[in-house]
Amino acid sequence: MSLFQSRTRQILLFGAGKSSTYLINYLLEHAPKEKWHLTVIDYNIMAAREKIGRSFYATADAFDVNVAQDALEMYLERADIVISLLPPSLHGIIAEQCLLFKKPLLTASYVDEQAQTLAEKIQDAGILFLYEMGLDPGIDHMSAMKLIHSIQRKGGDVLSFASYCGGLISPDSDDNPWAYKISWNPKNIVRAGKGGAVYRENGSNIEIPYTELFDWCGKHEIEVPGVGKLAYYPNRDSLKYLKYYGLDDIRDFQRATLRYPAFCEGWQALIKLGLTAESPHLPTDGISYRAWLANYLGFTSTENLEESVAQRLSVKPQARVMRQLKYLGWFDNTPINLGTITPIELLQYLIEKKLALKPSDKDLVVMMHDVVFERKHIQTRIKSYLIVEGEDATHTAMAKTVGLPLAIATRLILNGKIRLKGLHIPVHPEIYQPVLKELEEYGIRFEESYD
User: Fold this and answer.
1) Positive or negative torsion for Cα 207, 119, 18, 440
2) Beta pairing, strands 128-130 & 422-424
3) Can you tell me the distance from the alpha carbon of 175 to that of 76, in angstroms, rounded to the nearest whole number?
4) Cβ neighbours of 447 (radius 10 Å)
């Protein structure tokens, strides 16, 4: 054991939300042997305390990183490594401070523009900022690169690449017309796809605006072994990963999100009605959901509102999308009383209330890579797929597949097994080989089939 390892090393975690369960459990399980102490910071002290339990190897605290500069600096100064599960909008604050104190940073979130602007300084500081180290992004990158590198080592050329991933509800717990329940950040759920999508097909780059994305989703399906048919829509800008994957000249390249078909149909209806809009701010106090919706859609009366909405959507009043809207509560006479908020904020509130996991519910994570490659003038199609089912509303498949990659990478970095410096995502063998190997011990294992 080195001198560095002879003292207790400090792990600083920001965020004790839905995705932190397995991450915290892993760190606390290894803490005695590894000589770690974990500090969990969350805006909600009860959430942080609940996650660490009575562990001797952990401490909980609560403060707002936006304003508690002294507390933030105090914890960062004595940290050996930092993990952020905060909302993406707060990563910039953590990143700036980690750079200032020269502390390695891990997060499951996407590399954003601010992180890109810090890339040169991160490299010069000789520290590692490892982004996109969760499920999607994260396990998707690692498993894809393992597959691509394996094909290339055997002399194959990748011609077509598609990667699909979705956080779904297990069929056994599917009891609503949306065929969906919340297993991750609800704010990100209601804003998914907002920026539209870009992918490559037959050598041409295709753009799909948000207003058409979920209609597109309802018309595209794939068959996943052991699950059946799922709908999908392109996820953000797939093309920015061409350079990371070393596939710049590939003819087909797409990263996509999986959903059950019912969800896509319902979400397109929400978009068409303007209920995913970020403005205007509208009053809700003393107003029922039914009255708010009628007023928002420009109807003069709440009478026959269902028929009016159905006509606006060009569907029959008994259509599934109408049942979905009713299930969320848009036609209820219950007062809202949430102050002045935007349509999407009201939508998020309803979804958090109506599509929450029940304590015994099980979620489902599904991932599949569909790759066509050529070797010795013979084309082969390989499908590599992962299916993970959650245990309950706390021990979800989502928390497991987001948290464990971060936890394993933390251990590898602290023990000198990952020595990369600079701003990275997990596309390097130094990262993906040991992480994927250990994930298999937790049942996170890919199966393959060939055509």
Assistant:
1) positive
2) parallel
3) 45
4) 12
The string over 392-422, giving b where at least 16 C-beta atoms fall within 10 Å of a residue's C-beta and e elsewhere, is ebeebbbbbbbbbbbbbbbbbbbeeebebeb
Distance from C-alpha of 151 to C-alpha of 375, rounded to nearest angstrom: 9
Residue 239, judged by CB atoms within 10 A of its CB (0-12, 13-18, 19+), counts as middle
* Separation between Cα atoms, residue 143 and residue 427, nearest integer Å: 9
* Angle in degrees, CA 258, 86, 5, rounded to 5: 110
Query: Is residue 280 within 8 Å of residue 227, measured between CB atoms?
Result: no
Beta strands 363-375; 157-169: pairing state: antiparallel
Tokens of 103: 């502390």
CA distance 271 to 268: 5
The two three-digit tokens of residue 162, written as one number: 């598609």
Angle at 348 between CA 342 and CA 350, to 5 degrees: 105
3-state secondary structure of 396: coil
For 139-257+361-389, CATH gives: 3.30.360.10
Cα separation, 231 vs 48, whole angstroms = 36
Please write the tens of the pLDDT for every residue from 294-325: 999 999 999 999 999 999 999 999 999 999 99
Residue-wise pLDDT for 335-359, tens only, equals 999 999 999 999 999 999 999 999 9
Give residue for tokens 């021990």: 395
Residue whose C-alpha is closest to residue 232's, from 212, 209, 257: 257
**Please, which residues bridge with residue 231 across strands?**
221, 259
CATH topology match: 3-137+398-444 vs 139-257+361-389: no
* Torsions phi, psi for 130 (to 5 deg): -105, 105
Q: Work out the burial of residue 152: count CB atoms within 10 Å of its CB; fewer than 13 is exposed, 13-18 middle, 19 or more buried.
A: middle
Torsion angles phi and psi, residue 387, rounded to 5 = -130, 120
Q: Which CATH class is domain 3-137+398-444?
A: alpha beta
Residue 229: beta bridge partners?
223
Domain boundaries, the chain: 3-137+398-444, 139-257+361-389, 280-341
Strand ranges in 170-220 using DSSP code E only, listed in sequence order: 197-201, 204-208
* pLDDT tens by residue, 43-95: 999 999 999 999 999 999 999 888 888 999 999 999 999 999 998 888 889 99
| Contact in structure between 405 and 143 (CB atoms under 8 Å) | no
